[in-house]
Each structure stands twice: as C-alpha cells, then as structure tokens.
Records
---
Amino acid sequence: MNYYRLKEKNDLPNVLTPEFPSPSVIWSENHPLFLLGRVQREKDYLYFLSFYRSNVLSNAFLVAAEVWEIWREFQDGGRCRPCAFGHVSTRQVKAYYLLLPKILDALHEDTVYYWDGNLDTIVLSGKMVGTNQVFVVKGSTQMELLVSEDVLEEMLRNNIVGFEYEYIEMRGDC
C-alpha cells in the first residue's frame, strides 16, 4: 500500500488561521467547541483549508467536516471533537473536527531528520504501519499526518482541496 504526507496549502491568499487552544481545553469535554480564526484582510474572500496542523503545544489537527466524513471510514483509533471554526466579524463559520489520529512508531531507520529533530524525508516501516490508513508519525516537536492511497483517492474524488501531498517511501513487509 502507498502512503502520502498531507500538508497545508500555503500559497492561497487570505487563509483563515485557527487559534488552537491547549490540549486540556481541546480534550477535556466532548461537546462542540467554537474555534476562532484570524485573517489578514477581513474584506477579502476568506479561504478555509481542508485541514490545519496545530502549533507544537496543542498536538491536534483541525479537519473540515467533509474530510472527517471520509477519514472516519478508514481511521482506526485516535480522538475526535466536533467544533465550529470561523471568523466572527465576517460571519463565516463552518463545521470542523479537532482530531488526534493514532500515533504510530513506524519510522524506518532510513528516515532523514532536520537538525531540530523534526522529520525531513519520511521512510515508513511496512511492518509497523500494518493496515492503518490515517495516522501520524512524530518528529521532535511536530506530528506529520499520513494517509493511505485509498484515503487520498477518496479525498480527491470528493473534490477536497486546500492541501498538498507528498509520496512516502516504505521499507519492509506490510
């Protein structure tokens, strides 16, 4: 099975950026949470991305509802909390989910790291990945979101945009 690293698309103008709360706020309750977004120019069109990676402290992903609908069919384990994400003064709010997928210790010894310990070139150990299709691997401070080819194809079939993807090499048996 092939895997891909998902990344936020950062070449769009005026992207709404979430203000992530601390993990204790995110995971302390189950009822929906409102997540405030920041934008550079309120009068211009606001772009909502398909998913956002949180800052180092929150260790969560903010995922659009239409993406979550796909991922939940493929994901095994992890945590999820519904939320509304938007910008108050422009009155634009959309349904999202705060998500912490299963964290796998699935990095092969050939993985290349940046000087700060985060992941540069990811190489997965097929044996450790197993049949997981939506999961994260961890560098020193950042988590990298990985999905199987089946998940990526489903996202593209459903016209999910606002993200980039990169093929990940795998070594060893699945």
---
Amino acid sequence: MSNSTKTDDPLYKIAEMSEALDEVIKEETYFEMPMDTKIGDLGDLILKSGPVNVEMLFGHGPNVFREVEMSEKFWQKDGKTVENVLDHVFHQGQNVVVESKDRCSVSVGDVIHLFSCFFLVERIGFRQIGFKEYMKLRDDSFSQQLNSLCRGDGKWRVL
C-alpha cells in the first residue's frame, strides 16, 4: 500500500488551484489604469522591447494574437498617455497600414494586452476590463466560433 495522502494527488492540487483562482476572479480586483495616465520612460522602455499583443477575439477567437509594432513616429511624441498608445496600436493594427496575411485588422471586440492590463476595443475608443470580464469575453468568443462551425441541425460543416 502507498503512504500517499490526498494532498499528494496531482488532481487534488489542480482542484485546489482552481478553487483559489475562482476566489480571485470573484474578487475582480485589478490595477486600474486611467486613459490619461502618462506612460513615462518605463512605459517607453516596455513598449520598445517588443510588439503589443492584440487578442483577435472578434475575427479569430481566443488565443489568436496579432503582434502590433509601434511606429518610429510614435516615439517622437512627448507626454504619451495610455490612450495615445491604444490609439496607435489600433491604427498600426489595420491591414491598410501594416498588412498581415494571416490576421484581420484590429476590430471592435478585440482585446489589447498592455502593461498587464486588458483593454477592450469598443465602437468608439477603449475600455479597460478586469480579468473576469476578459475571461467571459474569451468564453463567449469560443462559443461563437464553435457555433459558426455547426449548422442548425447540429452537424459539422466542412469549411
């Protein structure tokens, strides 16, 4: 017989972590970043280190990202704010500006990942969302992607 306990079981540990994550999601606490927040030198450094990821929830579904590079012209501005960054990411994410053969343009319903925060692209502007709303959007997007693969009779379509 084994001397292992319930707490040694990997499935038990996963269940514990899942419960802990559920508690965090219920709390819905997140770092609020107002649109007029100046990003400063640290923000410049972070943005220059690589592209900004946009999750293409509207056109592709969860876990499909478009990497958006900031243009050189953007770095010449002083006093950049979060809103300036989001506007620039949206602009640079348009296929008429920088073409991407395997991704559609950044659209309403997509989520910009910036400074460990989530920003939803809305009809006019952007709105910061918490983790709980982000996960709901991802789940809804995945459901819509699955539904689009099915016909009304529940049989799979060949694309």
---
Amino acid sequence: MIPEKILEQAAEFIRKGENDQAREILAEGLSAFPDHPGILNNLACIYITEDRPDQALDLLERAYRLDPENVDIAGNYGYALLVSGELDEARKVFDYVLKRKPRNIETLNHLALLETFAGDFVRAIELFERALKIAPRDVRLLNNFGVTLRKSGRFAEALAIFKKAHQISDQDVEVLANLGATLVRMRRYADAERYLKRALEIDPTDALSWYHLGCRYREEWVEEKANPTADPDNLADLAAEAAECFKKYKIHTRDYMYEDYVDAWLGELATG
C-alpha cells in the first residue's frame, strides 16, 4: 500500500474515533516506509492524544529532520517538546512556525502556554490577546487565557474570560472547573461549588473538578479553624467533604500534578 493510501485510511479511522485502528495501520505503514514524514507525524499525533509524549517526540524529531519546511510537522514537534518540558527548544520551533504562519492559532496558543509555564505572563497574555483577535470565540483559547490570568493573580479578569467561554460552550467541563477554581481563589465558595458540581454532573470522573471542589471545602475549613467560635460539627463536615473530594481526585487523575499537595492535605484533614 502506498503512503498516501495509508494516511487516507488512518484519517478515516480517526474521523470515526477509532484511534486503535488508525495507530495500527500507521505503525504498519511506518515499518514499510520508515522515513515518510507524514506517517511519522500522524502516528505521533495519536501518541500525543494518548499521553505518550516521549514516543511522539521521537517520531516528530525524525519527521522534522526529514521535512523541516513542513509547518504542520514543526508545530506538532514544538508541542511535543513543550509537553516533554523542553521549553527552550519548543520556543525556537514555535517562533519558526509563527514567522511562516503568523496567524496560526494553535501555535499562538501553545507558545502562550509555554510562556505561562515559564512564568512570563506578560508575553503569554500578549500572545493570547493576539490569537483572540483572530478567533475571539475559540473556547480553548479563552480557557487557557483565563488560566494564565488566574496564575498571574488577575482573578476578576480571569473570571470574566471563563464566563465568556462558558456562554459559548456551557457544557465544557474544563471551563466549568476553571470557573470554580477561580471563584475558590476569590473566596466565593458557594458560587465555586455550583460550577464544580455542574462539571461533575456532566463528567463524574473529571479529576480537576474533584481537586478544585476539595480545595473549596479545605479553604473554608482552614478559615473556620482560625475562628475561635467555629462550630465543631461544621468543621468536621468541611474536613470530610474535602477529604472525599481529594480521594476522588486520586482515583481519577492521570497526570498526578497535584498528588503531593493532596497527600499532604489528606494527612492534615485527618489530624484536624
């Protein structure tokens, strides 16, 4: 089978949501055509969706060397570098892509995320604003922009951005979780709880929502503990709710980003 046919069949499987079949046909194609940039790129994209960044990065390094002029491959290579933590190399690749395609939304988004991780909030915000001039109703852009604003301490602005995203897509679990997380930071616990519970109605396995709901109860528990007239029963209820949410987070999480915090907080809640 020629490479073009392999890519066509794989694309059809992906459109149907049959990634296992797509991966299988691309892997077979790679055995027959080990230096075909398109096959390398498409197989790597599947690995990225499966949270296998190391395997994706290996394939995309090869594809990029073989076809450095292909902007789509370069963008995917930059993203694989980003999720692998190689920020400096990823930045170089993203800058190269944007020189070729300055209105590339995906690359603007990924570079803005990179600068957020690097702590350069000024540049990250500038990149998000640039992207949103091109695609003002892109929910992923709005969501990621809101996260950056929240990380930089601009809670009211972050809340406004998340609400805009929610108006566009009111069933988006990640947006609901981030709305709740931002409201927790603003100590608006009842409002936070409403959004987080709505997220969990839609997806009861969403680890991020469980984490932020646990934070909601823990934050109020910490505040109440400092109050000498606090109701012991209320304190016990808040601690129990927080612990239950954090345990659900541990069950459902895949990236373990907050695992150390959660373990420490569970110990703290258990001892009172």
---
Amino acid sequence: MDLLDPRNQRHTTFQKTQSEGQNLYTKIYEMLIKKQYRKAEELLGEHFSRDPFSGEAMLSWAELMLYQGEPEIAIYKIGELLRDFPENPYYRLAEALLIAETTKRDEELFELDLVNVADFAEDYCPDDLPDIFAKIGFNATARGMWSFGMFNFIEAMKLKEELSTGVDPLILLWPTNEESLHLYWKKAWAMQGRVSGYSIADVPLELVVQTVCILLIAYEDLGICEAWPIATLLGHSHRETREAWDNLTSLFSRFCFDWIQIRSRDGARPFGPWSAN
C-alpha cells in the first residue's frame, strides 16, 4: 500500500519534491532564506514593471526589506500605499508583519492584526481571501503560532475547494470529518511557540504527521504554495517523519486514515474511511 489519495477518485502520490507550482511569494521566500537578495530584487523588479501596485509583490518586497535590515523604508512605502488604497489586504498584511517584526508585538495583538487583515479581504476583496488565508497561515506557523496558522490554512483549503470543479470532494473536508479536524486544531496548541526548522522531538508524532498531511494536501491537491515550505520544515524537524519522508504512507495510514484513502499498486480495492461499508 503506497499510493495515497485525498479524494475518493482523484489520484495523487504525495511526491515529496517541490514542483514548478510556486507563486511569487514562495519564490521570494526561498531566495530570502538563501540570502539571494539581489536575485529577489531582480524578480520583484520584473513584477513591478508589469504591475507597480501588485499586492503580492509589495508584500514580498516588504519582507525583503526586513531581511536586509531596512524596515523603515518598507514602513514608509506601505504607509503611503495604505493612504491611497486602505482596503488592499496585501498592503495591510505587509503592515501587520512590519509592525510585528519592528516592535516585537505581543502574539495576541499580532493575531488580532492578522484577523483584521482577513476581515478586510472578506469585506472588500473576497476573490483574494483564499490567498490571504494561505499567507496568514504561512506567517503564523512560521512564527510558531500553529493553532492559528493551521486554522487559516484549513480556511484557505475550504475556499479553494469551493472553486474546484469536475473533481470529487476532498475527504479531509467531508462533513463527517468536521469533528476530527476540530480535535486536530485543538491539539495543534501542543506545537505553540515551536518555530519551523527547529527540533520538535517532544511533540507527539501523531500531531506532526497530521499537520504534514494537511499541508501536503493543501499544496499538492489545491495548489496552495505557502503550505509546501511549512510542510518541508516541519517534516524534517522530527526524526520519524524525516526518515520516512520519501514514503509517508505508513505514517499517514496510521494517523490520517479518515482523511485519505490508500490504494495498492496492484489495483486492489482502496482502503479508506468508507472501506468498512
């Protein structure tokens, strides 16, 4: 049993390599952690030449300024943009991140700032809401706010799933899994304060595996690019998931049985949450 499927008919193998499916934000993020600042500047310059007010590009540029130690430049620029475009959720998210990084904002206040960003997106730019949820999820989990971050990733998944046509619904989001997702979300508090990339050996394996499973479904089946870096960092922060990274089937079948189905390569009947029926 080594093929996993988050839909009851649609097939995905959960290949653990990053595809070409990156958006600008995750491309810039990768460059920033590699300290490829000049390369990031060039890529952003290309985007700004086509769209000087691109929300995603401006958000990425603000983070570049933070990495380069020049937040005051970004704060001034974003402030100007918000005076002209106060309802732009990307500018508001950039402002929230800049405030959090430059003032060491209290976690509860930072979370409230991010909730306000999502509220603005819902009220004024609903088409951007799935992407805003994903970027909030990314920034929250990357800062160790796992419960809040995963809640936003799941909200992004729900909205993206509503836009999917011609495919079977995600098993993870079936109404019968509402309770298990709620229980997962409550358990995610056990990772609170754990920054991605650092050891989480004392965190229950079940919680790590379930988090990685949700993030991989978000990335591979719904194209939520922000989920991939978090899944990778988390998966390599725990010994058992790191060692099983090339084939997580046994861990997923053990801890995520209600969220996926498992197919055998010989074409035998798949196993999953309905197989007992």
